[in-house]
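Support case: user asked for a sample of complex input and structure output to validate their parser. Sending the pair below.
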Amino acid sequence: QVQLQESGPGLVKPSQTLSLTCTVSGGSITSGNYYWSWIRQPAGKGLEWIGRIHTSGRTSYNSSLKSRVTISVDTSKNQFSLKLISVTAADTAMYYCARDHPALECWGQGTLVTVSS
Amino acid sequence: QSVLTQPPSVSAAPGQKVTISCSGSSSNIGKNYVSWYQQIPGTAPKFLIYENNKRPSGIPDRFSGSKSGTSATLGITGLQTGDEADYYCGTWDSSLSVLLFGGGTKLTVL
């Protein structure tokens, strides 16, 4: 059974870069026709899709964040990563990674990132 | 305000049935599959329904999904107190090239 685990700093200063990693266990990140997604959720609010990367390396991003987001994959470590530049307080949220196809079928437990000086 | 519209809250008694609607447009629900997720407070969302009406293994048949035109519906029968959660619909939008979620519906089992 595939499991996902997010990791990264819980506190990021405004204008800096948020970097998170999702480690996949119980299966290879390159096997199957999967997308690997990032989703976030501000406290008390709904879900927002950030973007995803396919096992082929093809990426798709939410247009509202596209200029600031990069999602990449490291197959040697069975991980995929999120980088969000120039963060503000509005980027404070719980960040989730998930395996996607045919839907967001397997989620990590989430990691809280606070943007504050 | 979400592109996919869900009622903010629904409620029903234990053992009863409830439906949660998700309204979209021709570029999202009208053209793509809908999925549904359950989020118990303090936990990650859980995958309930995919491709409009299919249940992954382990999801009881008390949960069902349907789609008609530009709207989708999640049904839950035999309500249990453990079903209290926020429920989200999700689908791809072909015009925006983005995965969309509804605003979420809070289910209260009275």
